[in-house]
Amino acid sequence: MQNVIDFAKGGGLVPVVVQDERSGAVLMLAYMNRESFEHTVATGYATYWSRSRQKLWVKGESSGHRQRVRAIHVDCDGDTVLLRVEQEGGAACHEGYPSCFFRERAGDGWQVVETRVFDPAQVYTK
Amino acid sequence: MQNVIDFAKGGGLVPVVVQDERSGAVLMLAYMNRESFEHTVATGYATYWSRSRQKLWVKGESSGHRQRVRAIHVDCDGDTVLLRVEQEGGAACHEGYPSCFFRERAGDGWQVVETRVFDPAQVYTK
Fold it and tell me: What's the mean pLDDT in A73-99?
């Protein structure tokens, strides 16, 4: 594993931009530490570091909406990763929208510009 | 200005994913504080906070490669912004590539997968 990715700069974490390979839509931003990056490369499915839960987070382990990794890019200064993925189930956001960026600025406020693919209450049943 | 964007979470800064409006390419990741966000909204051109220089950074002020803002999105938990922009000059990266993510993982290494639009030595002359 080459040391191109600068994990030290962000205290062990790098932000990861996640893009739908087919539509080009930006789906979400998450974070990886080295372990989650290596887990992603080894399994072919996106694995992040959950800052709120402080543990490895295999995206889709609860919802079934996993992200199959098609390409991994790193930026010029090595402190950001871009994943191009196939989003299983068609929704990346835990709120049921295709992307987490479902709100767009309109005037002085924000407007929902996507349609829910699933109802979170139906998917996240503990 | 609504308090949808959570600047406090990241110590006053939020990461900003920048996407080319036409091609859908992810161009770069930068950071904004509240002042740079308001400057962006007021001027219609992307303005970030430079973490290395610790000052407002009007993107393209040196290179001329400004980013005209076409849409602003915020994510579900309000801690990331997505800008959809028109990239003037066709290159977002200070290394002269269209995007900062010009390296793609190939095997155990990284491969340059974009072609330079400009020569940095010609553009950044002090």
Answer: 97
Domains contained in chain A, number? 1
Point out which residues pair with B2 in neighbouring strands. none
CA distance A22 to chain B (A): 11
Chain B residues with CB-CB distance to A25 below 8 A: 24
| Residue B63 pLDDT exceeds 90 | no
The dihedral over CA atoms of A9, A11, A16, A17, expressed in degrees to the nearest 10, equals: -70
Predicted TM-score of the model (pTM): 0.95
Residue B64 maps to a domain: yes
User: Residues of A5-35 as b/e, b for ≥16 C-beta within 10 angstroms?
Assistant: bebeeeeebbbbbbbbbeeebbbbbbbbbee
Kindly indicate the confidence band of residue B91, based on its pLDDT and cuts at 50, 70 and 90: very high
| CATH number for A77 | 3.10.20.810
The first and second tokens of residue A118, run together, are 């699933």
- Do A94 and B108 count as a contact with CB atoms less than 8 A apart? no
User: Does a structural domain hold residue B98?
Assistant: no
Q: Tell me, what's the ipTM?
A: 0.95
Q: What angle do CA A18, B16, A11 make, to 5 degrees?
A: 80
Share of chain B above pLDDT 70, in %: 98
Higher pLDDT, B123 or B113: B113
